[in-house]
Every structure is written in structure tokens, then in C-alpha cells.
Write the C-alpha cells for this entry.
Amino acid sequence: MSDDDFSLGVFLEGVAKGGIVNKPAMAEAIAALVIANAWGEDQLRRQRPLEVSDHDDRWLVEGSYNKERKAEDVGPVEIWIPKRDGRILDLGLPRILEVPPEVKEIIRKARKDGQG
């Protein structure tokens, strides 16, 4: 069996079952492995529980750490995983920074000036 035959077989099997990653638990397991590999087991523990939401042909897996973005620290991890093949489309761990009051004032004035 050639690599092309195997790839076609995996693709067809995935399509028949709604994709290779056809259950939220699979997307969560993949995301957990990626988080642990990219940022370590401690970050994985901080991000749990992971929340999985269905977006048609892909899953969005989000961490729960600092979800309200109230602390100046990292925020919730985001990982997009297509159902068809399970590769990672996007991966992010945002940094939450407090905006100083003087910067907020500059932004407020710029918005006001822009509205005429």
C-alpha cells in the first residue's frame, strides 16, 4: 500500500464518520497534548477545564484560565482543530496586559475626534 492509498483511505474513512476528529472528547484530548507540549503540564493544569465548541467543520478548544481577562497574566488558550484531519489550524496563548489610564485617555480622545 502506498502513502497515497493510505491517505485516501484515511480521508474517506474520516468523511464517512464526520471527520477523523468527530467527537468533542477527541478534540479536547488533542488540545491537551498540544498545550502540554507547547507550554508544559503546569499550564495545562491552569487551563483546565478545557471547553470544546462545535464550529461546523472544526472544533474550538478554549482554556478556562483568566477567561474574564481580569488579571495581568496569560489568558485562555485557543486551539482550532478541523474535524476532517485533526491538524492544528491555529494555536494561541494571549498575554493580558493592563492598559494604563493615560493610554485609555488617549484612546478615548482619538475615538471622540474620529467621530467628529
